[in-house]
Amino acid sequence: MEANRELESFLRGIGARAFRIARLGLREDQDALDAVQEAMIKLARRYADRPAAEWTPLFYAILRNCVHDIQRSHRSQNSLVAWLRRFVPPGEVEVAELGVEPPPDAVEQVETRQQLSRVERAVARLPARQREAFLLRNVEDLDVSETAIAMGCTEGSVKTHYSRAVRALREQLGEL
Amino acid sequence: MSAGDDQANDRAFEQRARDELRRGIDQTSPELRAQLDQIVERALRQPPRPRLIRFALPAGAVAVIAGLLVGQPWSSHVTPPTPASDDFALLMNVDNLDLLEQMEFYQWLDRQPGLLDETAAVASPQRS
């Protein structure tokens, strides 16, 4: 019972950060929610009896796999759509392709958060490994060895990806 | 700029980027937080994977692989050699391969009309 409460507190605490990290990899809220749900369920089913100190890197290792699975399934869907489009006569416009004007309040919201969006956009443009290293170190505060477990690589590799990420972000964003 | 300055600039940059990212997380909308809470509840309702499955699956996989490896020598004794494997074994023998080439040569020679007669005709005056 106590262990269950501890797990609940862990999952509630990590949810928003995990969502943000998944969102930067997947770019769609619903996909990010699906990935977080999958990762939480897997952690609760398989690793709830592991020491609580191991949960964070384990959870992010699972989340990373879930994000990759969703990206892979999108890639297959996109190839299928691209193949099917070859049979659509040119000049025929699909409804989904028509631009829809965003509501004014949404634009305003984006503008007020422009600085944040700039950082997030720059992070989202990083190669996957660099993005993972940067987010796990800075959003989740994992140390190098925990990040290595979460990313399934060596500590040296984490350091390399991380320093490349910082360099690329500084080049993109200047001094913020 | 010295390496020390560059590192200090990196640290300052990381701190600013970290603050911005965390501000975004703090601003997570109540709707999204409610969705995340539902996900947590769903995850906690999941029954844990039974220990038996957790250990039986890897153990079963190891047993199957071990069985295949150990069973390999027995199966070679039990299974009678097929004609194809006989042919292959015959071909792997270099002496037999030479024999096969000779056989093929004689078969070809036999199919050539009159060639054997001519050869015999050419050969016989020498003998006489």
> Largest contact between protein chains?
A-B, 37 and 30 residues
* Subunit organisation of the chains: heterodimer
Low-pLDDT runs of chain A = 95-102, 110-115
Overall mean pLDDT score of chain A? 84
Q: Can you describe this structure?
A:
The complex is a heterodimer of chains A (176) and B (128). The longest helix of chain A is centred in the middle third of the chain and has 34 residues, at 52-85. Chain A has helices at 2-26, 29-46, 52-85, 104-112, 114-125, 128-138, 144-151, 155-173. Chain A contains eight helices and no strands. With 176 residues, chain A is mainly alpha-helical. Helices cover 77% and strands 0% of the residues of chain A. By secondary structure, chain B is mainly α. Chain B has helices spanning 3-26, 30-45, 51-78, 83-92, 94-111, 115-127. Classes of the chains: A mainly alpha (176), B mainly alpha (128). Chain A binds chain B through residues 4, 7-8, 11-12, 15-17, 19-20, 29, 33, 36-37, 40-41, 43-46, 48-49, 113, 115-116, 119-120, 123, 135, 138-139, 166, 169-170, 173, 175-176, and chain B through 9-10, 13-14, 16-18, 20-25, 27-28, 32-33, 35-37, 39-40, 42-44, 46-49, 54.
What are the defining features of this structure?
heterodimer; A: 176 residues; B: 6 helices; 0% strand
Tell me the layout of helices and strands.
The complex is a heterodimer of chains A (176) and B (128).
Chain A (H helix, E strand, L loop, with lengths): L1 H25 L2 H18 L5 H34 L18 H9 L1 H12 L2 H11 L5 H8 L3 H19 L3
Helix pairs in contact in A: 1-2, 1-3, 2-3, 3-7, 5-8, 6-7, 6-8, 7-8
Chain B lengths: L2 H24 L3 H16 L5 H28 L4 H10 L1 H18 L3 H13 L1
